[in-house]
Specification:
The protein is built from no helices and twelve strands. The chain has 171 residues and is an all-beta fold. Strands 1, 3, 4, 6, 9 and 12 form a six-stranded antiparallel sheet that branches. A six-stranded antiparallel sheet has the order 2-5-11-7-8-10, with no helix packed on it. Strand 7 and strand 8 form a beta hairpin. The radius of gyration is 15 Å and the shape is globular. The termini are close together. About 5% of the residues have low confidence.
Length: 171
């Protein structure tokens, strides 16, 4: 039987801390001069990322981020879990990347990644930590150093509209 620890849910009564729902953050390539734009809305269904990926001015991504560095203060140890799960959907099927960051990575483009496809219907996906591959780093993933989880849409011009209804760890 699988165990789930909810880190975020649209139903805050199940989250370890209702303040976590507002900790989602949006980042786009504008931090480097790109022209992509995005916004985040909290809806009854969950946190929603809406925007447009533009390749203009060497751009090409939008990202929805969730901080993980505070989980250890809640007595949650990521290395006790198999991975992260998401309940999510999008306005259209879309390929994207899922990223983990750790305190061991110094450069903004370094991460641990796995690719996924998000669909129009609500879907629960399981993302085993073992499937995250080092991206532009040789540093092995150490779960005790996790700082951030991100959903990255990029690489090609696209409209983005996706909703995360729940996210957490599983074992």
């Amino acid at each position: 039987m699988m165990t789930h620890i909810v880190l975020y849910t649209a139903d805050d009564t199940q989250s370890p801390s209702s303040q976590w729902s507002s900790q989602w953050k949006v980042v786009s390539d504008q931090v480097m001069g790109g022209k992509s734009h995005a916004r985040m809305d909290e809806t009854r269904e969950g946190v929603q990322l809406c925007g447009q990926v533009s390749l203009e001015n060497n751009g090409g991504f939008v990202q929805l981020q969730f901080p993980l560095e505070t989980i250890q203060t809640k007595n949650l140890q990521p290395n006790e879990f198999e991975g992260i799960y998401l309940d999510w959907r999008a306005s259209k099927e879309q390929s994207l990347a899922l990223l983990l960051k750790t305190s061991q990575l110094w450069l903004p483009w370094q991460s641990y990644r796995q690719n996924a496809t998000i669909r129009e219907d609500w879907d629960r996906v399981y993302l085993p930590f073992s499937a995250f591959s080092p991206y532009r780093t040789r540093t092995p993933l150490k779960l005790t150093h996790l700082t951030k989880f991100s959903i990255l849409v990029g690489g090609e011009a696209a409209d983005v509209r996706l909703t995360v209804g729940e996210m957490g760890f599983y074992r």
